[in-house]
Design a protein that fits this description.
By secondary structure, this protein is an alpha+beta fold. It has one domain. About 50% of the residues lie in helices and about 20% in strands. The protein contains 3 helices and 3 strands, in the order H-H-H-E-E-E. It has a 3-stranded antiparallel beta sheet with strand order 1-2-3, covered by helices on one side. Helix 2 runs antiparallel to helix 3. It is rod-shaped. It starts with a helix and ends with a strand.
Length: about 140
């Protein structure tokens, strides 16, 4: 058997070549899942505090009291969160001008400090600003 025939029959190193071809795709998918998991977790946190603040504000008697209740709810529920920095959260609380008898809570979070922006290319990532809005009926008599 010539050395050329032995070379073609030799399968040593085939696994290393296959791993070298598949590993970048596998790592890209792994980091992608990690990045989107962190972003979705932060987005869900913002959605939950916006909804909770709107529900908490229903008990207020006037718009000022409702706003104070919504802001205190958001401050108390974001404080223990390790992922969302409360200093980067902007809260807008207002009576909805379009639909009378409703109250609007808008929570905007600047997600630029999340540890995800350097893991994969920025063109594949979601927005750096997470904005969630909840509208609730004020109720009362």
């Amino acid at each position: 058997m010539t050395s050329t025939e032995r070379f073609h029959l030799n399968e040593r190193g085939a696994s290393a070549v296959e791993f070298a071809l598949i590993a970048p795709v596998l790592l890209f998918m792994l980091f992608g899942m990690l990045v989107f998991g962190i972003w979705i977790s932060a987005s869900h946190t913002i959605e939950q505090v916006a909804s909770g603040a709107a529900r908490a504000s229903v008990a207020g008697l006037d718009p000022d009291e409702r706003e104070q209740m919504a802001r205190s709810y958001i401050a108390s529920h974001l404080a223990p969160d390790a992922l969302v920095n409360p200093d980067l959260v902007q809260i807008d609380v207002e009576t909805d001008p379009v639909v009378p008898g409703t109250f609007r809570v808008i929570v905007t979070y600047d997600a630029s400090e999340l540890p995800i922006w350097d893991l994969i290319g920025s063109t594949l990532l979601p927005a750096r600003e997470i904005r969630r809005e909840t509208i609730i009926t004020t109720g009362g008599l």
